[in-house]
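Same chain as my last thread, 339 residues:
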Amino acid sequence: MNKRNIHTFVMRFLEAYNCTIIEKSPAYVTTKLSPEADKEMTGRPYYWSFVERTGAPAETMTYKFILDPEQMKLESKPKVAATAVKNPPNGGFPNQAHSQSQGQGSSQSPVAPDENSDSILGRYFGFVPTTITTRVPQDEVIFGSRRLEQMFSIVRERGRFVHLFEEPFPTGATYHASLVYDTWLCVNYKVELACDRKRSEIHSLAIQLNSGEIREHFHKHVLTKSLSPKLPANSHILPDTISLPKAINALEMTLERKISVYDHSWADEANEQHRSEIDRVESYYNGLLLSAEPDKRDEIETQCRNRLQEIDWQHKPRIVVSVINCGLFHLNAGRTPRN
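reply #2:
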């Protein structure tokens, strides 16, 4: 994941959470978080519980996310600029001007004191600050950083299920006939073929809840669509004839049949390696048990069991299937509704 990908992801994340962009550059972005983003990212549960209990207006945090630390360092270096020194009015002799001002002090009226001179800061420091600048927290958002991992975690949690509608095409056209939408349940599976090595695959399967049609690579298909979380006007959704539990079961059976036709010679080789490692470890610890003192045998047996568990985890072949995310997609069926 390069800097451009991270920059695009962060900007889309802030836009999705309706955060206010205060300042933006290729090296950083300063943003005022929305209430939803503040609750997710700042870890202030007591503050938000107070706001919800009392109804007080919420004040969200402002952050400066550094997207390119190297470029940021270059931009923050102080620029060397020539400064002009003003000459005093007496031709460059400040002491002479000072003596003249002292000599004329008796005939001049005293200078009016500043309105803030009576304050403590005015008496001791000669000035009173009129504005207080707040410090904006800075966080590096680069690959492997804590803040970027937090954003990934939020997206994974919030994006586990989506419910979207296909927008009419072309955009802005007026349709006199009602649009008909089919409902598709899409599930993105992660399949891991694991032993001492691992191969991961992603399968995007979808089933139409009206006809039972199943499609593969559905994620690539919806990328070509313009989707919205709102149902378009003058549209009609066909009723589902397949329940969600039956649809999920059909997708799992499809994935299972797909995996069953794989070449599983890798599993046979892994089983042989697994058996060889077990024999080697058992032979080693059996030799230790024969020569060990009685009070040491329990400790050796515990070490042997732990080592065998490690070998099972490392070498035993297995297929692990997990769900990444899923969603309901209402896509234009391309036909008019029946009366």
